[in-house]
Protein: Amidase signature domain-containing protein
Amino acid sequence: MGSQMKNTDYQAIAAEKKAQQCDKIPQDWRIPADKFYHSAAASVMDVPLACGLLSETEARITSDYDATALLGELKAGVWSAEQVVVAFCKRAAIAQQLTNCLTEIFFDEAIARAKKLDQEYGAKLSLSRGGKPLPPLFGLPISLKDCFQVRGHDTSTGVCCFVGEPAAEHSALAALLVDLGAVLYCKTNVPQSMMTGDSDNNVFGRTLNPRNRLLTAGGSTGGEGALLALRGSILGVGTDIAGSIRIPALCNGIYGFRPSVGLVPHSGVRDLGPSGTDGVHSSAGPMATSLRDCGLFLKAVMGADAWRYDSAAVAVPWVDNVQQQQQRQPGGRKLRIGVALTDGVFTPSPPVRRGLKQAVDLLRGDSSVEVIPINLPDVELISQDLISYVTLSGSDHYYEQFARTGEPPIPSLQAGGLLSVPGTTLQVYFELNARRAAAAKKYLALFRDNDLDAILMPPAAHTALPLDLWTKATYTGLWNYLDYPAVVMPVDRVRPDVDVADDVSNAKFGPDDEQLYSLYTGPEQYEDAPVSVQLVGYRHRDEALVKVAAALDSIINKKGI
Amino acid sequence: MGSQMKNTDYQAIAAEKKAQQCDKIPQDWRIPADKFYHSAAASVMDVPLACGLLSETEARITSDYDATALLGELKAGVWSAEQVVVAFCKRAAIAQQLTNCLTEIFFDEAIARAKKLDQEYGAKLSLSRGGKPLPPLFGLPISLKDCFQVRGHDTSTGVCCFVGEPAAEHSALAALLVDLGAVLYCKTNVPQSMMTGDSDNNVFGRTLNPRNRLLTAGGSTGGEGALLALRGSILGVGTDIAGSIRIPALCNGIYGFRPSVGLVPHSGVRDLGPSGTDGVHSSAGPMATSLRDCGLFLKAVMGADAWRYDSAAVAVPWVDNVQQQQQRQPGGRKLRIGVALTDGVFTPSPPVRRGLKQAVDLLRGDSSVEVIPINLPDVELISQDLISYVTLSGSDHYYEQFARTGEPPIPSLQAGGLLSVPGTTLQVYFELNARRAAAAKKYLALFRDNDLDAILMPPAAHTALPLDLWTKATYTGLWNYLDYPAVVMPVDRVRPDVDVADDVSNAKFGPDDEQLYSLYTGPEQYEDAPVSVQLVGYRHRDEALVKVAAALDSIINKKGI
Structure:
């Protein structure tokens, strides 16, 4: 592609790219027309198993495990890498047809690599049977957000001017995951600019929410969210600068973990901002169907000398027995969980309030947890400053890239207002830094003076919204601003019987709050929308957060750790 | 002091402050006139023991140990905290009279605290004798560079307008060290602005080099360097943004470790730059008389939940058995040490060349080490960019602070040229960041592709220089720019028989190089100047560097680890 004369008309570029993409799905992996459910709103969650394309083995491989359990089976030789990779490629193809969640598709490469892994390590030969020592993520398929460079494939991020420029090198994380034995097989859809909560662009179009296609799949890692919800992937990687991992995790009812910046290599990720920009950085992190899979990913990456792959890595090691934790949690000490019911800017909608209350009630009923009510200071100011940080250079660089092929901004980008923020000066940048240093002190005091292990709160004031209405990210962006790790965990879904809309007068934080609050019209429009909570740890103590989250998840969702 | 009407004449302020400082030294701790050596150039290294002020016990306590050994004696109850603290206060008072190395003196407070520690934990009662568990740094006196806030004392950093403003709170590190059981007893001198290699200012005057008072004691942590060389301190803390720990370590023949930024808490350190400035940050780190004392300090701080004290901390834990290290160094693997003979900008002077060669020869002769010759790329450009980073806002903020009391810039500040660098723009700042990201990739490749454990190189092109001539910091600043940990270790001193000056034509890197090279006039002017090497590790792998440095130090300096 790269050597051809480049097309400069965005519609022609997109049409050609979509046709190429479509060709990557084998004919016999296409869903028969009569098996395709046509009701626009209805959930398509049952289609992968109902459509008849998956063999019984493929159905089991893709349905019955989380990544941790599947990896165990791969290592034990219960399934070969090829069997696993073929099954997920097929199910990803199905998910793509249902929700338009993929961008780059390289199933052939993935299956070839899986075969090679099987040969190299002995197909279905476990370590105990005398095979070569297996790499930590042996044969595990992992999907990546489109912005991660994968050698030989585009990194267009849904911007037409970047189509047809295959990457010469793997991004740092792709290289690391491959070295750990993982198998890359597809990349997933994002919003144009990667700065909105709706994964829609002029190249690939919009990703739909598989639970309710009238609601957004979220963004900017929305393709990953839809793919994981449909189990077309068992472990995915997103990036998050204001909520881009956590918002789609919430929208699709999966787990999404935003690590502290730099703990997971981020080099070789396309960034539409100007080179060298600073202030608040995007963080790469896992999205999965279980909490422990987030831990699996982080442990594998943080334990793998990530600094060797990325000169910007922050080399906090994974330490299974953290001395400090032992010191800090002697036998009888309860986990101390701060609970923030709101962020003081937007009032949670009825299902969000109920979900959090339900989780807190379960924690209060558990003898190992102490719940401490807290308030989050200064979130409105912080939220404004976060916007200033992510638009330090204004919006010209976006327009310039769109203008190269004449593509228009997507609706959610226009609605979000990020394209009309002016750039700033070095002086104002320093003022932002000074305010953030003061906020960081205040939040450290909140954590330390309450001796908190984590903060539990909503991940947003609402569940997945109707399309192109997600314009606020105060609940998630706060933690990007402070660089605290945060994980979104599903706890329930909108229930027709209990989650009735109430009066907008419950929104107490002003006109913007009222407007957002009024979007919740009741359980009908929000049918099946997942309800999640967000758990926040302290900066760089990501391993501790994984462990606290596992403990709380086992209480809230009654799962074993 | 704070409540009085402030004086605005710098000379009056300084005179009053110096008089107050002088009063803090008890009459019977003053060196008798006949014991004071008057030759300006001569070493005063033997005066502390020769002057007759120290009792035999005080002489032993302050002479016979490094911090690690002394701490062992304190914990075993061989010496009480009071005995140790009194001894170091007295010897610090002597060092002050010889070299003018102190700023704030609070011996009374320190002795009172030591008594309290003895009472609380049982004087001379070891843990094994059933006492209360001892804190990690029980009773150990630690001196701090003047810029660290200590409650109740000024943080003037030698700038007249800040005199008479006692700190309301401890800096993060002071608070942490006190919580660990250490005893703070004095702060140490710095250059006006803390941006030169000569610790001279209009409040306290100049710190002299105890080995040769016609040579600089270095800066900006020069007071600490002189104090440690005279054993008026056993463990000190400096800060380093271009070499400010390592330069005085080199000048005074002690060990100085610049950690990766944020591993040691830096909040509550006076910074003369504008609030919120960014790009290259100062790092706090230990200065000591042994390599293992640097490790003692780092282990204590990194193992102490430093994040609880400082919202800007980078929470890399100290891990005694780093899994990765075990993986990377199986039985037979040699330590791989890259050796850079120059930085490609300034040619090392004859004693510096000899010192490095001597060290490298010892390493080559050791079966556990493999020496790999390397070149350091782009140091000249990096060095220019570092200056741009540390002067992002130009020099107005310095002049404004000096102007408040009418004080003139010190000679080394005028010579260094930092006061005539203009400020820059956000755009140029981003360009600096982009260039640095590219350099970081290049240096990562150097480390990774050569499979290096560390880089050995000179800490400067020269030894301690005559006063006010230290204007270049390319050898040290490189690692601030890249944020790699680096430690300076003494290996020898200038020797009259071998370190003869040679022709300036040996300086091959241009006129600036020739000019600097010509400063070495031969061993007479540089009598007793320490010769040191610098060992550099990879970013955030400070613990690994401590261990590699210990191994090399034991080979080069024939000491046990």
